[in-house]
Write a structure and sequence with these properties.
The complex is a heterodimer of chains A (247) and B (107). Chain A is mostly helical and 247 residues long. Chain A is built from 11 helices and 7 strands. In chain A, strands 6-5-7 form a 3-stranded mixed β-sheet. In chain A, strands 1-2 form a two-stranded antiparallel sheet. Chain A is globular, with a radius of gyration of 20 Å. Chain B has no helices and 7 strands. In chain B, the strands form 2 sheets. In chain B, strands 4-3-6-7 form a 4-stranded antiparallel β-sheet, with no helix packed on it. In chain B, strands 1-2-5 form a 3-stranded antiparallel β-sheet, with no helix packed on it. Chain B is elongated and about 55 Å long. Chain B starts with a strand and ends with a strand.
């Protein structure tokens, strides 16, 4: 066969192979038990429904409420899919809500991981259900993603483990009795049954850090945000279903 | 912050047909066996009793204990023959009390 025929043929074959390769990424919600999947899928049973009700209440509360600028929460459909973002520094969704509260509502910031902040995060995230994660790009975010990837693959803590060793190399296996998920971030904030409450991605990451006996990074530290940026990119394109339910 | 409860009922209820009631109330259900970050014991704080009344008649009740999760969620089935008022009450430690009422659209 002539070389000029072979080249396009090879290209075609390569393209076909790429298209046929299935997405190996699995959301944590697809690997948890059927009972938990039911719990997440049914809004009337969802353990975060009380938080969502609080979110609705807060949304309309005060002289200068969320509603007075944004209208209905549904106008923010798609917003949660576009975080973490870069706007005068890295910022994730709870960070954006805090900034809105301080700058535009002139209210004191909530404590990290406080009930109202989680409730509003869950309400805003809920509006983006079914949409693919589409974190933005940009120089600052690229640098953060690179740093996040380094952090993800660096061994830390007294147990000397990296994120990747569990969540890439051993995903699908078990740690004690629990399944190790792939660390996809498509459902945050999540209601963890272990926590008996909603929690942000930062809480989840801090939990892992203390699990490997490493220094736990501060809330909204550069390290946590960089890791969040990297994880969001890793899950790009996956359909989000927040708020999630996790064991 | 005001106590919140979420109650889910079917939109349309047929007279004499069973329907599912789901009720959850925001409550920490602190067992009294846990310690806080400072090592001090967290005081017990539980919802003790849930009651559901159909036009004043007790139709469902539950005693709750320390092993029940935060934001206790109860689901049960009832039957009603005519439009009625369904009232819910939660009572617990430290004077905790919360009441809700829902109108049943029985057709």
């Amino acid at each position: 066969m002539k070389a000029w025929l072979l080249l396009p043929l090879l290209l075609l074959l390569a393209l076909a192979a790429q298209a046929a390769e299935p997405d190996a990424r699995r959301s944590g919600r697809d690997t948890m038990s059927g009972a938990l999947r039911t719990l997440q899928a049914d809004d009337a049973q969802h353990p975060a429904q009380l938080a969502l009700a609080l979110g609705q209440e807060l949304w309309a509360q005060g002289a200068k409420s969320c509603a007075s600028c944004h209208g209905e929460p549904a106008t923010l459909r798609g917003a949660a899919a576009r975080y973490p973002a870069s706007d005068q520094g890295l910022i994730d969704l709870p960070g954006r809500i805090q900034r809105c509260r301080v700058r535009h509502q002139q209210q004191p910031a909530w404590a990290p991981e406080s009930e109202p902040l989680l409730a509003l995060s869950a309400l805003v995230a809920q509006q983006s259900r079914g949409l693919p994660l589409a974190p933005p790009r940009g120089a600052e975010l690229d640098a953060a993603a690179a740093r996040g990837q380094r952090l993800y693959t660096t061994r830390i803590g007294a147990l000397n483990l990296s994120c990747a060793q569990c969540h890439d190399e051993r995903a699908g296996l078990r740690l004690g009795g629990s399944l190790i998920p792939q660390a996809q971030v498509d459902d945050y904030p999540v209601y963890r049954l272990e926590w008996q409450s909603l929690g942000s991605l930062q809480r989840r990451l801090r939990g892992c850090l203390s699990g490997v006996r490493a220094k736990v990074w501060d809330w909204d530290s550069a390290e946590l945000l960089a890791l969040e940026v990297y994880l969001a990119r890793r899950s790009t394109g996956m359909a989000m279903q927040p708020p999630g339910v996790r064991p | 912050m005001a106590t919140r409860a979420v109650i889910t009922l079917p939109v349309a209820i047929k007279a004499g047909e069973p329907f599912e009631v789901r009720a959850t109330v925001a409550h920490a259900m602190e067992t009294g066996y846990r310690s806080g970050d400072d090592g001090a014991r967290l005081a017990r704080d539980l919802v003790r009793r849930f009651e559901c009344r159909l036009d004043g008649e007790l139709v469902f009740a539950a005693d709750l204990f320390a092993a029940i999760s935060a934001n206790p969620y109860l689901s049960f089935w009832l039957r009603a023959n005519k439009p009625a008022e369904l009232s819910f009450s939660w009572r617990g430690d430290n004077g905790f009390s919360h009441d809700e009422t829902r109108r049943l659209n029985v057709a």
